[in-house]
Amino acid sequence: MSITVLKAGLQTTLQGAPFAGHRHIGMPAAGAADCVSLALANFLVGKSLDAVAIEITLTDTLFQINEPCSIAVIGAAEYVRINGRDRPQHQTLKIKAGDQLDIGPSRPGCRTYVAISTEIDADRLLGGQSTYLTAGLGGFHGRALRKDDAILFTPDSLVTDLERTTPENLRPHFNDDHVLRFIPGPEAANAHAEVLDGLCLSSYTVGARANRMGLALEGSPLVASDSSNMPSAAVFPGTIQLPPSGQPYLLGPDAQTTGGYPRIAQVIRADRHLIGQLSSGARIQFVQTTTERATEIYREKLSLLSTWLGQIKLW
Amino acid sequence: MVDDEPAIHACDDWISITLPNWEAVLAAQIAFSTDSRWIEIVPGLDSIAVQFDPALVSPDDAVNMVRYQLDPAAPLPKDFHNLITIPVCYDEELAPDLDYVAGKLEIAVETLPSWHASRPQRVAMLGFMPGFAYLESMESCPAIGRLENPRQLVKAGSIGIIGRQSCIYSFDSPGGWPIIGRTPVRLFDPSRNQPTLLSPGDSVRFEPISKDAFDNWPLEANK
Questions:
Q1: pTM (predicted TM-score)
Q2: What residues form DSSP beta bridges with A128?
Q3: Is B125 in Cβ contact with A295 (below 8 Å)?
Q4: What is the pLDDT of residues A238-248, one digit of tens each?
Q5: Does A140 touch chain B (CB under 8 A)?
Q6: What value does the CA radius of gyration of chain B take, rounded to a whole number of Å?
Q7: What domains can be seen in chain B, in order of their start residue?
Q8: What is this model's ipTM?
């Protein structure tokens, strides 16, 4: 019972729910970088919304699926083909044994999720199965997939009769211009007064250093205060740090648990799934909001998604 | 008493609390850990952060929960720590920055292992990566800066030092601390009941071992 990787792409990993409750021992969240696309894909194949799926980054990939099952594809991929024929995203797709699944490059956006109706056999630790690449833990032996790897899955419930199509109004639109809303971070008060104004007034471009740990942003540099003596303090996915260079660094799902640069801002939870779709060259406009408004936005987003997906958590 | 009020800063799903020292951080961590509404409780060196689910708890309520649960008058826990001995090989092959650090300390390179091993250390916090430990020595020490150019690869087990603080890298990773030795023991093993070797508050003693002992360190000794 397996899926054979014929073309692995730039960074293809098994990702589902993040690790939770272990940041105090240094274990980052990991998990799907775009949890909304993951949830929508899993729902189309009848899986729990945060079940482990295949996360594909930027370049095209090719898989051979060796058993009949259902799959669903949601994300930035330009096309989805089964045995060379174009197939749509956002609906349950039936697979026959030996079918070849071809996922196109991300245009625009960054990541695509392939959900499978069966239970993917991923390494388990600390209550999770997602891949944490830096320490080589979880997922497929803690690493990105390579050509000829076989992703194993359990044979039960291979075929379901489920046929679902994501409602139009819930389909994510991918583009390379993003608005991310933020709350001032703990060190914003100590930072130069114009730092947050600068963050909002400048438009930032995601630099070449962009991965699951974080994204270096490029724009008009902000005035960094001396942080050489800042004691290490907690950071989270979505934290915006200000290193001495003055170019902000936006932390991603694999962000380390603590850091020594001023935490000038925090992207709100409701917008954090968008970070997973940022790739080098994407433009970001930051907008400041309040904790009250952020909570409203988060609850509104959950309520909209739950009309289709039922109870959902974002991370 | 206003000066003793910890600084509390709320983001939309986490709150940072600045505290006077790591002992107070540890006391706060123990206090917060009884409330399951905190999804994450993340100690820093002089601060702690708690994360919550804003679908269930509003940031204002979360701040009130923090104020209620933080008791600055609570006595610090005393008997919570273990004494853990960590074997370290200070061989230059594993310790690229011996000369740099000995220079900063103005001591001979040969005496650096015994100097480092004689200093009692406490685990101040875990963070950065799974099992990565920040240690603090009680004794004063000249400042030793981080490397100007961080390394792309620091091997797992490497011991770094920047003055009163030492650290132990738990996995291969990039890093900017000057490296003076390496331990063969595993800092993080998810198959163990307690995945991390060290916990905040633990006392650590470094025990110098030879390169030969390092190379032949039995894997089962990690268990």
A1: 0.93
A2: A125
A3: no
A4: 999 999 889 99
A5: no
A6: 19
A7: 2-69 (3.30.1360.40), 83-222 (2.40.100.10)
A8: 0.95
